[in-house]
Amino acid sequence: MISRREWLHHLTGAGAALAFGSHGSLASEAANRNPMTRPIPSTGERLPIVGLGSSASFAQVARGDDVSALRAVLESMIAAGGTVFDTAPGYGASEEVAGRIVQDLGAAKKLFWATKVNVAGRGGGQADAALARNQIETSFRRIGKPVIDLIQVHNMGDIRTQLPILREYKDKGRVRYIGVTTTFENQYDELIRTMRTEPLDFIGTDYAIDERHAEDVILPLARDRGIAVLVYAPFGRRRLWSRVGDRKVPDWAAEFDARTWAQFFLKYVASHPAVTVVTPATSRAANMADNMGGAIGRLPDAAMRKRMIEVVSALPAA
Questions:
Q1: How many CA atoms lie within 13 A of 33 on its CB side?
Q2: How many C-beta atoms lie closer than 10 Å to residue 311's C-beta?
Q3: Measured CA distances, 108 to 63, 112, 148, 177 (Å)
Q4: Which stretches within the chain are classed as H helix?
Q5: Which of 85, 79, 93 lies closest to 26, judged by CA?
Q6: What Rg do the C-alpha atoms of the chain give, in angstroms?
Q7: Helix or strand holding residue 229 (H, E)
């Protein structure tokens, strides 16, 4: 098996660079095969199980003057059959820059656009509601779509004010799906309460092979309640890359078609039956192509998942 570094060299080496001007010449095996999909429980609509997040390095590049790398990332995802793009006004310039790129590419209709809202204070009230609506309308302008696929309340921000607003948008047909998110441990209990008491289409939370808290309550509850799950930080916010270093991917990972560590980690997360889409963030087109490989071929079964955990548990702590 090969490392991510070797895989990326393979992607970029043949022909010197990824030929994004012609998607047919994209130097990615993932681009030539259809990604696996999962249904959104509330409607049955199917989504590719790997998408793109826009925090972390994506957001860092979005703040700069040259955003051509992000255009290449989005082209890479689309060429490989990916559709889900997760962003937020809270990710700096990510939403605005990605919106411009997608409109320039004429690709807005190809993407399942997931964004967020979180400006209301904990006190609620008319002023907070107005701020929330203004932020949502700004997202519409940035994206250039009359209907946004998914808007979620970001990090459980004032659910009492913002979730009813999202319901209004959904009832009017301007938003297709709504939900809530958090990646903070001190908000997990509130997330679980909201999942139990509110009609949600989606949640978003963190989940990785070495951070499996979501397996205890959140993911089983999502499955029981018919709630789709977007997974954030599947690489542990780079923690897993520090842990594996230059080690090779186990040869037996080929049994579920994982050729790189990225695919190893993504396939573990995606193999949980409650997970709908995994959305790792990246600012490199080659990484995006590698990540989309995690949606290709087979997924590990329960026995293989245990073996995968054993391998990662034996690695040094980050």
A1: 15
A2: 16
A3: 22, 8, 10, 17
A4: 4-13, 56-62, 68-79, 94-105, 126-143, 159-171, 188-197, 218-225, 239-244, 261-270, 285-292, 302-313
A5: 79
A6: 19
A7: strand 228-232
* Tokens linked to 196: 């139990």
What gap in Å lies between CA 110 and CA 103, rounded to an integer?
11
Residues 6+ apart with CB under 8 A from 260: 1, 2, 3, 4, 7, 249, 290, 293
Residue type, 147: V
Please name the amino acid found at residue 232.
Y
Spatial neighbors of 134 by CB under 8 A, at least 6 apart, are: 119
Q: At what angle do helices 188-197 and 218-225 cross, to 10 degrees?
A: 10
pLDDT, one tens digit per residue, over 219-259 is: 999 999 999 999 999 999 999 999 999 999 999 999 999 99
Q: pTM here?
A: 0.90
Which domains occur in the chain, in start order? 46-235+273-297 (3.20.20.100)
